[in-house]
Amino acid sequence: MPWLQLRFETTPALVESLEDLLLESGCSSVTLRDGQDNPVYEPERGTTPLWQSTVVIALYDDNIEEHTIIDHVKAHLVIADDQTFPAYRSELLEDKDWVRAWMEHFHPIQFGKRLWVCPSWADVPDPQAVNLMLDPGLAFGTGTHPTTALCLEWLDGLELDGKTIIDYGCGSGILGIAGLLLGADTMIGVDNDPQALTATQENALRNNVDASRYHVFLPEAFGNQTAEVVVANILAGPLVELAPKIAGCLKPGGKLAMAGLFPRHMDEIMLAYSPWIQFQPHAEKDGWVRLNGVRRAS
């Protein structure tokens, strides 16, 4: 079935009202994009940055008349004296298997010396390597993002035999499961999204990991468990707020990696963790940073 797509170019003042009216008119989805290709990364705490030019994209079944949608929006959109009705254009999108189209761009990737991450539908390039078969499903984490890659490369360089690894913010489970395949004894995944816990369980099963070797929790059910290795690939704000909790997950001498941050966040995060963590040289990839450290004995 083809789809009718409407693209409106507008300003921050009209975005929320326009989005509401498009949803009222029966669209299947609304997507917001930066009209000037200036992405807003993680904002500083207490701020809400806005794109100065926003593209609002609405998707409809093709049996809806375009003029009906536009008439509805024009009749209800409140426009100030210094504003005009947003410029827009429409197009019909071909019927397409979007899942398969995405799958075509996800290929096996090597991290470090031993580890490959391979989509579950692809052949492994090196059967003798440590191959993590992954279907991200409902949760983030394929290894293609620089922050995930930084953490996978770090794990590949560790001696993990017999150790427990905590993946805080586990997403698809890619980091914790990689740790198991690289020799860790047990993996504990924590995430505030129940879909992430489901995806982690499914990916562990896909990699033939015995159910006794991994455990997943929502944060409120996690408790005070500790491990020799902790990895947290989340954002800078949560990393700062969770500093006592994440640092408390590490046994003395345990190793920590944190990613999902930019160079400007390093000082704030290192300060937040300084009571517990002795930091080591950091790593960067495509403008993203991974901080590494060791839990002090006391």
How would you portray this structure in words?
With 298 residues, the chain is of the alpha/beta class. It has two domains: 3-95, Alpha-Beta Plaits (2-Layer Sandwich), CATH 3.30.70; 104-295, Rossmann fold (3-Layer(aba) Sandwich). Helix content is 29%, strand content 31%. The chain has ten helices and 14 strands. It has helices at 12-24, 66-76, 98-103, 146-156, 174-181, 194-206, 219-222, 236-241, 243-248, 266-273; strands at residues 3-10, 29-34, 54-61, 87-93, 109-111, 115-119, 130-134, 164-168, 186-190, 214-217, 227-233, 250-261, 277-285, 288-295. The strands form three sheets. It has a seven-stranded mixed β-sheet with strand order 10-9-8-11-12-14-13, with helices on both faces. A four-stranded antiparallel β-sheet has the order 2-3-1-4, covered by helices on one side. Strands 5-6-7 form a three-stranded mixed β-sheet. β9 (186-190), α6 and β10 (214-217) form a beta-alpha-beta unit. α4 (146-156) runs parallel beside α5. The longest helix has 13 residues, at 12-24. The radius of gyration is 23 Å and the shape is elongated. The relative contact order is 0.10. Mean pLDDT is 85; it is low at 39-43.
